[in-house]
Design a protein that fits this description.
about 110 residues, mainly beta, four-stranded mixed sheet, three-stranded mixed sheet, about 10% helix, about 40% strand, globular
Length: about 110
């Protein structure tokens, strides 16, 4: 295509997906879905430091989707996470909130 930076010569390579990396970084580093293990049906949520006040992400998995919403309120994070049946959710505290207070109506 003419939109790739490497299209300055006729033998340009279009065989890699660097453009999709931004979506991966958003899901992992900004939204906080650090790891989704479909085989073992586990999810690691790691909420990192950023200046956002809220975030929402939806990730399709084979038998449904994972939906994570969070909102910062002072030293508290309100979140909701919806996962397909049988998935376990684990949290890792990477914020300077001591103690980290997470609230969810559906876990």
């Amino acid at each position: 295509t003419d939109t790739l930076w490497e299209n300055v010569i006729a033998s340009a390579s279009c065989c890699h997906g660097f453009a999709s990396h931004a979506a991966y970084v958003y899901i992992r580093d900004i939204a906080g879905l650090a790891s989704i293990d479909k085989e073992n049906r586990t999810i690691l949520v790691r909420l990192g430091k950023n200046s956002l006040k809220y975030c929402k992400a939806t990730v399709p998995v084979g038998d449904g989707e994972i939906v994570l919403n969070w909102t910062k309120k002072g030293k508290k994070i309100d979140y909701q996470i919806e996962v397909p049946a049988g998935y376990k959710v684990y949290f890792e505290n990477c914020l300077d909130l001591n103690p980290l207070v997470l609230t969810s109506p559906n876990l």
